[in-house]
Amino acid sequence: MAKYFGGCDVGSTYGKCVILDESGKIVGNATVRSKINPVETANMALAEAISMVPGLESAKDLTYLVGTGYGRNKVPFADENISEISCHAMGVHVTDPSVTGIIDIGGQDVKGIAVDSDGTVKNFAMNDKCAAGTGKFFEAMARAFELSLDEFCRLSLTAKNVIPITAQCAVFAESEVISLVGEGKPREEIAAGLQVSIAKRCFVMAKKAGTDGNITLTGGCAKNEGLKKAIEQVLRIKVVELKTDPQLMGALGAAEYARQMGM
Amino acid sequence: MKDLKHIHFYEQLLDEANNDLVRKEKAEGKIAVGYTCYYVPEVLLNVGDAFSVRLRAPRTGSLDISQYYMTAFICGYSRALFERAFEGGYNFLDYWCSSETCQQMNRVVENVDHLKLVANAKFGHGIIDAPLKVSEHGLKHYMTQIKTEILEPLHEKYGVDISDESIRRAVKEHNEMCKIFEEISELRKEKNPRITPREMHILSLVSYACPTAQILPYLKETLEDLRSREADPENKWRARLIVVGSELDDYSFSEIMESCRAYVVADRYCFGTIPGRQCIPLKDDEPALEQVCKYYLDTNACPRFMSQEKVHARHEELLRYAEEYHADGIVYEQAKFCDFWGYEKLIGTAYLKEKTNLPMTSVDREYVISGSGQLMTRIQAFVESIGIKKIQKNRGANNG
Questions:
Q1: Which residue, A222, B163, B240, B349, is most buried by CB atoms nearer than 10 A?
Q2: What predicted TM-score, i.e. pTM, was given to this entire model?
């Protein structure tokens, strides 16, 4: 009988689930908006991922499952939990072993992760001061611009200049943005300023962790094209594109650990 | 494992600075002397009718009032002590001994005094000017400071016996307690230890926060219980770690370590066991006070000492512990805004990276630790990086 392995990443903004077969191929995945109760988020993500795999009906049909993310202790069906730092490193490693550095921008924190040649963590750094540089920050800024998150993320791509933003605090930055909009400054240039200010925060995390060589972005904010462009400028690198959705890297790493433990 | 004898009683004692044993000692007419730092020799606060209480601020909530008086850029420990004093939590104190170790703590004592926050008519305080170097001159100065700022005021205000004989009695009792800790520390060297990091942290904390004479009988019984205790058959620990850093009196930190399956084999933080819970040797033919002061200067591992020999000794000591306690890694923990440890962790990690392959990490933390998900993620990731490498190495060895 075929064996399947699961990874469930309960993040502050999204819950993700990945199911692997014995060869390590992704056979099911899901991304759902997080509920206030992490147990509910985990259940929803798992149910959706399982529905993609014929023959699987519940968590009991999985040989092994690893929980990760801020709600990793609350994944009710997990055999074990592993920190998202280790899981992102492993997820990226199995996706592209040439990558040795990760900037993970999640809903509530930013992390720099240096990856060892075996997919384990060599070193890491994470912000813990505030929401600056996180998904929550971008959501607040999109609100200030009265745009959807996707629209806001693309806004800076058309900017000819960058208007520097001095505040990194989500609350103060929002006030600064409103003042600049009120002064009639081009919105795309303000947005570019915001992306650069966050890219600088990412630069610090990446350097603190000692990342070098090929660097990629993971987490929900990896899909923010404006931020990606700003990071490439600030870090003077070409960000490695992953062939799998970068938001799934934590869940994929968790599933890979589950596969290694359950085989 | 079954519950360690008296552990729940110890937990209760740690819920208040003015705990049951402090109140008992006070009811017997003893003099409560608060202190915060290794520069103030604990044993000298236990002479005659005096007893020491290393100050904590358990169950700290908002720090708004202390922030008003002392700004936000002060370490959480200092602010929490001020806040607790403001709330009347140290009214049991008769005397508060502090040291010029850091200006932040000095501001606490000065504010407490200026605002008359301790509702005790006889309350007094002394601040010693501690030397920055260990030398003959430094020792002389240190002794003078301890005499004039601590011992003489205790004698003059409260009639405390500060004679040589009284100091020797205090050292004897102190050593009795230290022997208990020396034996327990040995248990941490076991492959599958019979005492958990949380339990060890609690034992260490009660030994500082309670009168020695009162806590000693309980600790003796706990040791007896430990001697016959058996560890759980399954060794759940993924990594054996040494923890060094700033003042740490919240055992939630050790709970986080445990939840990440990290075993703390040795701890070097204020309120920890190294230094502080090792016997003080005394010769009969030399003055006890001088010997005690010299011992405290020699063993002081505070990063305030910046002379090369002290800095070097601190790093070498870590390497020695790592070998002695079979450690897999080192964690530097720094209370936010703790100036000395900010510097120490930087040069410490740089130095040790050159000298050893031991994995190292450093974490910033608040005074109140419980509920810190980010701290748990950091520690867990560090432990995993060690644990997973161990598993892969073993697999490689088995396959090869």
A1: A222
A2: 0.87
